[in-house]
């Protein structure tokens, strides 16, 4: 027997469209969904699902009910097993009255700790004296008491042991608080302390609605030296940031209803937009968009509007997210806000109607790339046009939707003047490793086991990265001339992409491949000063591009040998001639001479890495 309150919780948490959609191809019909009935043969859909009321009904055979009755009917389960099946999908623990304590959820204590912490932070926020500074901050951001209560916002006092002492009084296990990241320790002392201090707290919920982690935004008057503005809980047995999206637990029904999701950069943007009527909004959790997060969104919609900052870093994040979304079959578009505005400031300063106008003028991610390349004069010369094509190819490759990819290829061919057949030949080549593709392609030939890394790799690539660590002005300049795809060495490719994502990078970012992280540390610690930096930069970029062109030429030759299609052969030959012209324009291989002249030496440890 399952207690009634547990059954009610499972019913409230369950997404009936998700559950039924696993068995029936549902299509939207206004606010509802319809399909051919799974319980009798029919040609015209008469089976309807009403998510707002949580029931289904077939107007042909008359069957109707809630999520439990559907599972019982469709899967042949009794009521108890149907409740358990649905509960497992939405993360609710089901305990029958006779269940033994030993069978409890192994992570129950972690969830209970987070529930306690959420209540602790909430009480601190509403405390007349203790939460006054935090409330004033939120009110200044347009978030009043009602909105704060709705989204469970709280406040962590600027104290080292406030949460720890409160938990101890209730007998909570300190080791478990360390495990979920509510407490932390330092290298200087093993004494645990409150991880979140002097911050507005945003509870992070899983799809079940249970708190899996917290995010904190530091407020004025609580700044600590070198403290980050935003701080997230570390990963734990119940929290994996790459598979979680802030706000999805309360936004998913609105996302399905609106057939669109708004993706913003942070908690404050998400809460502010939701408070102003945009319920279909989520935010990644301090990391780049992952394929798992994109797949989550794909359960509810195909259309994604990206509202990241319009500065260089924001654009890089936008296009990286766009490619990840395309790989999952979604259709991303870019919302461009006025300079200096973000979603929060815009909706507070000018209102929901103005923001809606920008949403209505969202531009497909490929079109936005083309606009930016046009603005930066990338189609003015042959060399820059080729560079533009290199920047567009990842998006073409990422498009999993065949029709969308076909549209993309046609657009790029029209804008760049590169023949469609040539672009398609490029796309048939094995895709390079990128920011979300790790390791070499399975179809790429393995390197010779004893071949040392040549100067074109250990020299040009390393020297360019070294220049970028010494003078950050070279980061943007390099990003305009070459892409991560031009790097042969996987570690250097990863490092280059990391600098494009974060030009002020001062150490390996979380999750970086260990080999790349070690190489980055070596580069950052390298005391070598490079004279005539501008000349060395130009020669390094040229050398990297020459190596890329040589590899592309070799691939074209291989495709020519394999091809039996005369039109394809003609396109491949034309591309080969074009590459040869670009190769000649870059000049002879003068890397060795340049390295000798300016005393640029490859790292002696690189060959054995």
Which labels suit this protein?
single chain, 609 residues, alpha+beta, DNA Primase, Chain A, DNA primase DNAg catalytic core, N-terminal domain, Dna Topoisomerase Vi A Subunit, Chain: A, domain 2, 5 domains, five-stranded antiparallel β-sheet, five-stranded mixed β-sheet, 16 strands, globular, disordered C terminus
Protein model, in words:
- This protein is an alpha+beta fold and 609 residues long.
- The protein has 5 domains: 4-102, Zinc finger, CHC2-typedomain (DNA Primase, Chain A), CATH 3.90.580; 108-239, DNA primase DNAg catalytic core, N-terminal domain, CATH 3.90.980; 248-370, Dna Topoisomerase Vi A Subunit, Chain: A, domain 2 (3-Layer(aba) Sandwich), CATH 3.40.1360; 376-428; 455-598, Orthogonal Bundle (DNAb Helicase, Chain A), CATH 1.10.860.10.
- It is built from 26 helices and 16 strands.
- A 5-stranded antiparallel beta sheet has the order 1-2-3-4-5. A 5-stranded mixed beta sheet has the order 13-12-14-15-16, with helices on both faces. A 4-stranded antiparallel beta sheet has the order 6-9-10-11, covered by helices on one side.
- A hairpin with an 8-residue loop joins β7 (183-184) and β8 (193-194).
- α17 packs antiparallel against α18 (402-416).
- The longest helix is centred in the last third of the chain and has 30 residues, at 533-562.
- It is globular and about 80 Å long.
- It starts with a helix and ends in an 11-residue tail after the last helix.
- Mean pLDDT is 82; it is low at 98-103, 432-458 and 589-609.
């Amino acid at each position: 027997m399952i207690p009634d309150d547990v059954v009610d919780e499972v019913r409230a948490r369950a997404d009936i469209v998700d559950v039924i959609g696993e068995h029936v191809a549902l299509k939207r019909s206004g606010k509802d969904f319809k399909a051919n009935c799974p319980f009798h043969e029919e040609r015209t859909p008469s089976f309807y699902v009403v998510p707002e009321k949580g029931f289904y009904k077939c107007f042909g055979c008359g069957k109707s009910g809630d999520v439990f009755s559907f599972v019982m009917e469709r899967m042949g389960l009794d009521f108890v097993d149907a409740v358990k099946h649905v509960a497992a999908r939405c993360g609710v623990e089901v305990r029958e009255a006779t269940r033994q304590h030993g069978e409890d959820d192994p992570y129950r204590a972690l969830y209970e700790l987070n529930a306690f912490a959420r209540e602790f932070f909430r009480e601190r926020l509403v405390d007349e004296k203790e939460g006054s500074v935090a409330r004033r901050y939120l009110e200044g951001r347009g978030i009043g008491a009602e909105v704060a209560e709705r989204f469970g916002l709280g406040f962590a006092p600027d104290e080292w042991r406030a949460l720890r002492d409160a938990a101890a009084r209730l007998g909570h296990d300190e080791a478990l608080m360390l495990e979920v990241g509510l407490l932390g320790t330092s290298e200087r002392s093993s004494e645990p302390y409150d991880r979140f201090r002097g911050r507005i707290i945003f509870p992070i919920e899983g799809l079940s609605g249970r708190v899996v982690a917290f995010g904190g935004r530091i407020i004025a008057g609580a700044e600590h030296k070198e403290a980050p503005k935003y701080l997230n809980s570390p990963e734990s047995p119940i929290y994996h940031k790459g598979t979680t999206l802030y706000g999805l637990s309360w936004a998913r029904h609105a996302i399905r209803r609106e057939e669109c999701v708004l993706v913003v950069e942070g908690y404050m943007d998400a809460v502010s937009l939701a408070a102003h009527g945009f319920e279909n909004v989520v935010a990644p959790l301090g990391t780049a968009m992952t394929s798992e997060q994109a797949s989550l969104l794909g359960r509810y919609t195909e259309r994604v509007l990206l509202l990241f900052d319009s500065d260089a870093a924001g654009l890089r994040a936008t296009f990286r997210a766009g490619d990840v979304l395309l790989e999952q079959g979604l259709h991303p578009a870019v919302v461009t806000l006025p300079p200096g505005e973000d979603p929060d400031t815009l909706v507070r300063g000018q209102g929901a109607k103005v923001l809606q106008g920008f949403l209505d003028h969202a531009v497909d991610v490929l079109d936005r790339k083309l606009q930016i390349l046009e603005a930066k004069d990338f189609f003015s010369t042959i060399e820059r046009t080729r560079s533009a094509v290199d920047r567009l190819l990842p998006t073409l490759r990422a498009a999993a939707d065949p029709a969308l990819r076909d549209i993309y290829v046609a657009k790029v061919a029209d804008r760049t003047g590169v023949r469609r057949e040539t672009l398609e030949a490029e796309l048939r080549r094995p895709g390079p490793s990128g920011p979300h593709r790790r390791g070499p392609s399975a179809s790429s030939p393995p390197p010779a086991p004893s071949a040392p890394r040549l100067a074109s790799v250990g020299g040009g690539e390393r020297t360019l990265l070294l220049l970028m660590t010494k003078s950050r002005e070279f980061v943007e300049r390099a990003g305009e001339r070459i892409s991560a795809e031009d790097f042969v060495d996987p570690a250097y490719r990863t490092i280059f992409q990391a600098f494009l994502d974060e030009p002020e990078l001062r150490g390996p970012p979380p999750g970086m491949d260990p080999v790349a992280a070690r190489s980055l540390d070596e580069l950052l610690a390298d005391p070598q000063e490079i004279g005539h930096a501008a000349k060395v930069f130009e020669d390094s970029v040229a050398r990297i591009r020459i190596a890329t062109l040589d590899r592309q030429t070799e691939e074209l030759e291989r495709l020519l040998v394999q091809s039996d299609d005369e039109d394809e052969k003609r396109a491949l030959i034309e591309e080969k001639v074009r590459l040869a012209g670009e190769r000649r324009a870059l000049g002879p291989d003068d890397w060795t001479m340049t390295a000798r002249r300016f005393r640029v030496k490859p790292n002696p440890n690189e060959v054995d890495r």
